[in-house]
């Protein structure tokens, strides 16, 4: 009988050990599942073993986790707003016979490359990183956007004389404000002749505080001997306004308002962009003559 009782006690002990082992395995499984769940939420917190031993650091870890989740939710909300705006542009694109690619939105994204494609220009407009007044898909190119000519042109009226008393030529003076004549023209057009510089403007205002804007002539305009800018094609990050054009021609030609006169492209900068344009031509909304004379 004693032997029988001993056998029963041994069996009970084995059963207890088995349950304890099962409990330990279950606990390890729960910890492993919780760890995987955190990984799936992409919440990564790196701490040293010593740091975990204090309640203060534990609270800091909890705060970090909450902040990471809030950032993720904010990103989701922002992306949701972008998709709402995107619907408008997709409809415009379809009406223009253009198929836009599938877009994703990430505020921390760093673009690789130099000049934005036409499709990327649209995506950046949706995200608010580029502004173009009166955006129209008919003016969108593979890697640029056409800007149109305004209906006002200015021409300088030289009045300054040289220090040479025998020289009767009238000059412009870069250190003085030079007078000019202003002309408004319509469907009759405006005649340009060689030997003069014509100050004109685009109809569209543009703005970007993220990219480097640049304007240049269109192929069809260049083939007619029209130069839309003289060494002043680059814009600055942060410039907001209509673009002044310095037009010169190599033969007499008539131009008309609202024609696609030039194209704007956007380049990705390399480096910090905190230094933004705050120059004398900021917020210009008309053709501006040179302000070099201003100190």
Describe this entry's structure for a reader.
- The protein is α+β, with helices and mostly antiparallel strands and 295 residues long.
- The chain has a domain at 140-267: Deoxyuridine 5'-Triphosphate Nucleotidohydrolase, Chain A.
- Helices cover 32% and strands 20% of the residues.
- The protein has four helices and eleven strands.
- The strands form three sheets. Strands 1, 3, 4, 6, 8 and 9 form a six-stranded antiparallel sheet that branches. The protein has a three-stranded antiparallel sheet with strand order 2-11-7.
- The longest helix is centred in the N-terminal third of the chain and has 41 residues, at 55-95.
- 15% of the residues are buried.
Features:
Deoxyuridine 5'-Triphosphate Nucleotidohydrolase, Chain A, disordered N terminus, 4 helices, 20% strand, alpha+beta, six-stranded antiparallel beta sheet, 11 strands, 295 residues, three-stranded antiparallel beta sheet
What's the quick description here?
By secondary structure, this protein is of the alpha+beta class.
């Amino acid at each position: 009988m004693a032997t029988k009782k001993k056998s029963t006690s041994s069996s009970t002990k084995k059963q207890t050990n088995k349950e304890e082992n099962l409990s330990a395995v279950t606990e390890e499984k729960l910890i492993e599942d919780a760890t995987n769940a955190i990984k799936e939420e992409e919440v990564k917190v790196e701490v040293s073993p010593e740091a975990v031993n204090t309640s203060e650091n534990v609270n800091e870890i909890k705060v970090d986790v909450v902040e990471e989740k809030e950032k993720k939710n904010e990103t989701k909300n922002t992306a949701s707003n972008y998709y709402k705006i995107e619907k408008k542009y997709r409809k415009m694109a379809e009406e223009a016979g253009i198929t836009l690619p599938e877009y994703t939105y990430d505020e921390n994204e760093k673009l690789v490359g130099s000049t934005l494609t036409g499709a990327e220009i649209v995506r950046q407009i949706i995200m608010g990183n580029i502004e173009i007044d009166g955006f129209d898909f008919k003016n969108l190119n593979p890697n640029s956007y056409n800007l149109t000519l305004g209906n006002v042109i200015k021409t300088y009226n030289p009045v300054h004389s040289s220090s040479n008393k025998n020289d009767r030529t009238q000059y412009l003076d870069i250190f003085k404000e030079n007078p000019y004549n202003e002309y408004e023209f319509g469907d009759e057009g405006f005649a340009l002749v060689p030997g003069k510089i014509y100050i004109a403007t685009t109809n569209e205002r543009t703005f970007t505080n993220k990219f480097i804007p640049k304007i240049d002539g269109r192929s069809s305009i260049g083939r007619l001997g029209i130069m839309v800018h003289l060494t002043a094609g680059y814009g600055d990050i942060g410039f907001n306004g209509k673009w002044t054009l310095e037009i010169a021609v190599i033969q007499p030609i008539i131009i008309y308002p609202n024609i696609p006169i030039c194209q704007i492209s956007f380049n990705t900068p390399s480096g910090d962009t905190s230094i933004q344009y705050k120059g004398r031509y900021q917020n210009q909304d008309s053709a501006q003559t040179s302000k070099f004379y201003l100190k």
